[in-house]
Here is the input.
Amino acid sequence: MPLPNQIKTPTFVQVFQWVTDPMGFLEKVGQQHPDIFSSAVTGMNSVYVQHPAAIQELFTNPKKKFVLVPNQIVQAIIGDYGLPMLVGEAHRRQRQLLMPALHGDRMRSYGQLIVDLTEQVMSQLPLNQPFTARAVGQEISLQVMLQVVFGLYEGERYQQLKDLIGLMCAPLESPLHSSFLFLPFLQKDLGAWSPWGKYVRVRQQIDELLYAEIAERRAQPDPNRTDVLSLLLEATDQEGEHMANIEIRDQLFTLLFGGHETTATTIAWGLYWAHHVPEAGEKVRKELDSFGASTDFISIYRLPYLTAFCNETLRIYPAAFISTPRVLLEPVELLGHKLETGTRVLSSVYLTHHREDLYPQPKQFRPERFLERQFSPYEYLPFGGGERRCIGEALSLFETKLVLATILSRYELKLIDDQPELPASRGATTAPANGVKMVLTGRRVSQDRTYARTV
Ligand code: HEM
Here is the structure.
């Protein structure tokens, strides 16, 4: 049975467009087919849905009509046992196991660390010298993830891990280099200088460090630790078996990567919008100023304008612009199109976020839209939905808000280039093409609950 609204352009042309300009590709296709289309752009022919009714069906699947299909792009990074690769009971159990480390009191306990790291990274920036907001976001979010995953972010092993993860992410900076994640035939180790060869060697060094950490922790268990690695080491399955080293390694890898890249991107976009649309940035600062120099991190997290600002940041250029693919277990009708068992279906998050009928003037950055109305989980979905909804959502929002609140209330920054910054492909996600180039022009200081400019 033909798939709905199949894109006729040759697949290699689509792949090229996807790798070089994913949003441009989606926008062109979305103009022709605003609700649903089919394409083989990510390796296998799949149906992409952007109409909220179809997304609701995809995410809520009351009769378990949709399940996850293993994804080669994600697998190339996280291996076979990371959360996005697990299905059924194994998936449910791992989610349950990981949840406490990423939510509630544990999450709140990272507040001071996030603010201190932000202050540490920002205070090292020289005045009036260019830096990229993305590098700042990455430095902070990687250290936060090391703390969440291992309970530590200092010491030789963590420094090595930090450097190697940076190296592993480096090829993703270039859309063309990151294309090896999409194209299995490029995944050939042709020596240390070939893109895949380099990637494999760095991954191996990271593995060695992770396995060394796992072995040490197994040898000296500490029941008082609450980090993710400790939770995984203690966990047993229904037969009372502990997790194998490779399963633990894949889960650690998943969190280190899934957790820091996307959050770093969101922080960078937040800094961009606060300065590219200065009225919006000023409103965030005004709200923070009226709040004073508080360390009540949960109240900062709940500030209405800051929340609307972060929502709009994740709407306009969501770091993950498509959801993980699901596959049909039985025939389904979506928006009047009959789909057969085995069909792959994804939600195109970016296109849903740019629907005129939901978000008038969608290209305009306007946080107020989130204060004026509430959007359903099928209209606003930067973290996906259903049983696959991002497990790090609460932590990444907490982190993004605290980092932005700290920087915007304490520092004066300027964009170097006021030309619009556009998103570029980074493998399975997108990020600002030029990293958001900025300079630090001064520090703001608190005076009687308001902030005055210095320097
Ligand atoms: C702004 C930051 C982030 C964004 C935009 C984001 C987005 C997403 C999206 C769209 C999905 C797929 C959901 C679906 O298909 O329905 C996902 C899954 C996932 N995310 Fe995130 N994410 C972010 C931060 C994080 C963080 C901080 C962590 C870890 C602490 C994390 C870990 C994961 C994991 C493990 C999954 C797979 C869930 C599963 O298969 O059950 N993410 N994320």
Q: What stands out?
A: The mean pLDDT is 88.
